[in-house]
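Work Package 3 (structural annotation) set out to generate three-dimensional models for the target panel prioritized at the project kickoff. During this period the team completed the workflow that converts sequence records into discrete structure tokens, so that structures can be stored uniformly alongside our sequence database. As a representative example, we reproduce one entry of 326 residues exactly as it appears in the project archive.
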Amino acid sequence: MASQTITPSKNIGFTHEDFAALLDKYDYHFSPGDVVAGTVFSMESRGALIDIGAKTAAFIPIQEMSINRVDDPDEVLQPNETREFFILTDENEDGQLTLSIRRIEYMRAWERVRQLQAEDATVRSNVFATNRGGALVRIEGLRGFIPGSHISAREAKEDLVGEDLPLKFLEVDEERNRLVLSHRRALVERKMNGLEVGQVVIGSVRGIKPYGAFIDIGGVSGLLHISEISHDHIDTPHSVFNVNDELKVMIIDLDAERGRISLSTKQLEPEPGAMLKNRDLVYEKAEEMAEKYRQKLLAEAEGRPIEEEVLDIPSAFEDEDLGGEN
């Protein structure tokens, strides 16, 4: 049996510098903006050390652990937990990277609200503060603003703190960090599900402006423009209505996207000026006049000639005294 000679290998020196060079050769290149996997290996009072495969452990400060406020790192992270991290800054003088979870949540939150806006979804959120301009809420962890003109509430704005409100998206702009929502539009849309053009509803006057009156119909506001009060000329709505007056009005337009309901009493007048001279007669014949209005809209939609009886204003009031209410 042949013998086998084993020649001892030469002693090859391998210094710390060689090892560092080898690490550099196979080290990943980490850049701010990258999302990497990392493992928590040390928890500290104001942050945590994370192993992401770099030569030096990366650090995540407590303020970067969540899009929401964090008082203690263990609210978010656990030892040996592996998850994704966003590289926030390049290496400092000690070769250490700064990481963030908040930035990942922030990006995904904007992606989510853009999707919700595209779906025209209604979301709910709790009001956590108010200011002179409106109310503040959080949607997917992002701070959102409800302008005062888009808050539909009978109580004072300050009393909304703590209330859970249905909301629709008005503006979603990540670049400008603007997330604007509407409570009024959400309520109007919900109310609109039970409303239709040509429908007669009962409402009360909640505000009067030079251009018209705002009518509360079941918790949402519709505008009775001055041009839709009567066929007769009106100088100001104040000469016709008082706040808290109860009215019969007809819906002439529903704009869900803008959250607006347009109303009319002019279309309910059996004769021009009847709304000013004898309001009770207008209300008595409201459904009859509304039906004529609906028939007219239907004929227009179908391209049919509008029948004369639809166009004619009833003459049933010719012998009646229209000199009643002012």
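The first strand starts at residue 35 and ends at 44.
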